[in-house]
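P.,

For your records, the input lines for the assembly:
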Amino acid sequence: MNKYLAALLGVFVVYGCSPSNETTPAGEGSVLSGKVRLDGSSTVFPISEAVAEEFIAVAPRVRVTVGVSGTGGGFKKFVAGEIDINDASRTIKPSEQEKAAANGVGFIELPVAFDGLSIVINLENDWVDQLTVAELNAIWNPDSTVVTWADVREGWPEQEIRLYGPGTDSGTFDYFTKVINGKEQASRADFTASEDDNVLVQGIAGDRYSLGYFGFAYYIENQDKLQVVPVDGGNGPVVPTLETINDGRYKPLSRPIFIYVNPLSLDDPAVSTFVDFYLENAASLAEEVGYVALPADIYQAAERRIVQRETGTAYGEGATLSTLIGNDG
Amino acid sequence: MIAQSNLAWRHKKAMFFRCFCIGVTAFAVFILGLLIYQVSVLGLPWLDAQFLSSFPSRFPEKAGIKSALLGTLWLVSMTAAIAIPVGVLASVYLEEYARPTRLTEFININIANLAGVPSIVYGMLGLAIFVRFFQLERSLLSGALTMSLLILPVIIIAAKEAIRAVPGSLRQAAFAVGATRWQVIRAHVLPSALPGILTGVILAISRAIGETAPLIMIGALTYVAFVPEGPMDEFTALPIQIFNWTSRPQEEFHELASAGIVVLLLVLLMMNALAVYIRYRGTRAK
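Structure tokens returned:
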């Protein structure tokens, strides 16, 4: 018996040790070692994962780890000083700032990309050409009286409108309710909510009278199953595309996403090199994983904040595109 | 006449119950088959050496489960190493040594209750005690200790049942020829109870392999591009990696998740086969 166990263990050990060091590229990164610990939002995760993957290709001895505890869960660890960087799909809340201050933990806030919340409908929906922010508010506000599509605009079918949206714990929900209904978390409650956006895609794709919203990446990957609705934020209807989100025309549903860096961690060359690398590559890597690059001057402003170790939040609670460009452009 | 129709009716009832049982079993097997069919169709094309030997990646064709698979193997081995001895010894104490006092009864009831506590609660406990208080951080050791707490009640209950099923006459015969309590337990009670204990252990370990919530709670990671080398290393595990892939927008990652599920099922099957083999050896030796 022990013979078999030993053989089995042997297989695991050999498998575990064999091809772990593939290539060791030359350059300053390759002598760097240490740990970089990230945690936080599942929305930001794909970007951080991509950056980590590219970073360890040039600095193979640095152990970069990325967790997914949600923006709030990540901030809990961040303010306790347990992680170096928090991925955040919203800005830090006052209560989280207080805890950070109480623990003597500072933070440097760096915007890394845009996400364009997309309003989507079924492929067979042939009546909706665009929606205004006022109409979206009429549909989604907590006291909404909209029951059928005809209640949204005259002439649309008298069929019950079935709504889909992200769960109330998500940053997407916070942002959407803030810009459409004027208050975070204020939303009608009779919609199908799921933390898993793929469930929303399935629901909307299978229901002709549906309407829903989620992140841009999920729309792009499912373009053949869904239609996106142009949104009129005051200057005519705009379709979310890489271009309209990047240059600020798609508003108010473009939202910035962030990383928060502990300034003490920047004393570790592994972390500071990683953060520099993140900002240098965020634009291209964000687009690869379905997000939208920020305008170049915002990345430059972010780099300045790192150099100057400028702590604190620049955007206040519930940052939107206009505050981002206004404050940092 | 009456008796005869009664008999026919009883046969009919028996037949009906038999068919009902077959139907229920068939339904369960059908659902399982459907699941296996679906993940195999989606996942098998992705399942190759490259998949097993690569770290996670944003490119589905480059992504693999090496860190997750090894993380799970480390985690399960350490959990088994902690939970099995503690669980079996605790049940030996409760069945063979402890007097049936109020306190013992209280402990027994509590263990039964603990088996029904949601796993996320163990995650919170693990986070507070192992990660924060003992400062073990987000290491394999924290994960294994938390998982051990989670599966201990299952092991203890199963082991107690198995030990209780060992006939009292066996113990008394051994005592009668002068064996000490330790000799009785080691030479008679434990070998007789082994198959039952192993069944409990298999169920418990299988649960530990599939469990995600407590790991996420204690802060096991999602992106890990290195292999853990010791109990204090950070880690990820198969269910976490699978969950992450299913929540991605790209279809290819959903297929990768299916491949991950196939691997998870294979690991489960291998562990169970090992336990069944040990049990078989145990019963044959008698």
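Two observations worth noting. Residues 29 and 59 of chain A are 4 Å apart (CA to CA). Chain A has a mean pLDDT of 85.

Regards
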